[in-house]
Here is the input.
Amino acid sequence: MFEGDTLEWRLTDDSDVEEFGIQPQTFPGNAKPWPFMDAVARARGRRRAPMRGARMRANAEGRYRYAVTARCGATGGNGGSEVEIDPDIIIRSR
Here is the structure.
C-alpha cells in the first residue's frame, strides 16, 4: 500500500468467525508508532462492521507488524479455537 491509503479488515459472510482483533506488535528496531491515527491500539472488528485503518500518519513508509486474532468454529455453543495470524503491512512512499 502507499502513504495516504486506507486499509480495511473485514470478515466474509462464509466465515464462522463473528469477531476479530487487531493488535500492533513492536519489536526491538521496530519502534515506529502504528501508522493509522484512526485505528486504536487494540481494535475489534465484527461481521458487517469492518475494522479500518485510516488517516495515515505523515512519513509512514516502512514495515509494520501486527496480529489478527479470532475464535473460529464458535457456533452452536462450541467454544471453538483461537487463531492468530501474523501479517505485516508494508507502506511505500508515492
